[in-house]
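seq:
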Amino acid sequence: MKKSRFIYIIAVLTSFIILSNIVGCSDKSAEESLRAEVESLRTQISEQTENTIPTKQDNESTSQETSTETTTDELKYSEGLEFVSLGNGTALLKSKGSCSDTILNIPPQTPDGETIIEIDKEAFLGSNMTSVIIPDTVTIIGSGAFYRCTSLTSIVIPNSVTKIGNEAFWECNSLISIDIPNSVTEIGSSAFYKCTSLTSIRISNSITTINEYTFHDCLSLSEVEIPNSVTTIGKEAFMWCSSLSSVVIPDSVNTIEESAFRLTGLESVDIPGSVKNIEEYAFSYCDHLTQVIINDGVEFIGKYAFSNCGSLLEISVSNSVSTISNCAFAGCPVLRTVTIPEGVVSSNDWKIFEGCIRLTSINEKSPKDYFENWPY
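struct:
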């Protein structure tokens, strides 16, 4: 019986008692019976009220249930995605289809039960998802798969992925950090080009080459761990990473290609002897670079390799270097001290240091004693 109905009955009975007293026709035993009924109803109302008022514990329990339901909903696999069968019980994730989820949770299988092993090229080009969970059945993330997904802030790459294609995450400029698992053996060129909010990245220790433009224009990148598996740092791989103030180049690296660290925020560079070639412009325009150490084993320094480093004070070049190309250290206006192998630089090669107007010592000699036509 509802509370309102109880109240109505009490009101009727009470009115009947009062009316009986007024007209003087009350039966004492009947009146007492009615009063007892009223009290009984009052008691029932009180008990019902206590049972219907939610307690703090009830509220917490309800809240937990709601929270659980929300979490469960968030973890549901995304629906409406478009797949293409590859045969042999496998499938390609072709596109987002009709899926509008901002939290993309890719299922491991298609509705037909085929295992999803690859995300196709440009599958989610320009989509508005904020996070992506990739199942551990996927082995390939195709070229441009998440190209210009500008709202993407996080992505989980499972240990099943072996290849990340060219431009896979091009201009995902809300992506903050990423962990590339050790299963990945190949990262395509420009894979993270212009991910301007990316602050840190851990590279798989199965990678041998950091390809050209891989992290180009990652303006916020301040922390990168290059594993001992890497042998080549490609052309412009870290160019314009202006927040990158330090990097450890492992002794597995043998080539630093053209403009690899150009326009970065590096403050010092210690190049291991495993590196044979430092190509042209490799560290040029690094305005915060103050010290360069080139260890024994390095053989070649390309043209403009350390040019226009406005804060560079000191250079130490090992005796293993046999070639220092034209303008290798040009345009370093505060450079004062240089140590280079004897005989590598001829008396006519002053343009290697062109624009180094404050240079006072080359192998403890005055530049004027070292070069015939030293202009400063």
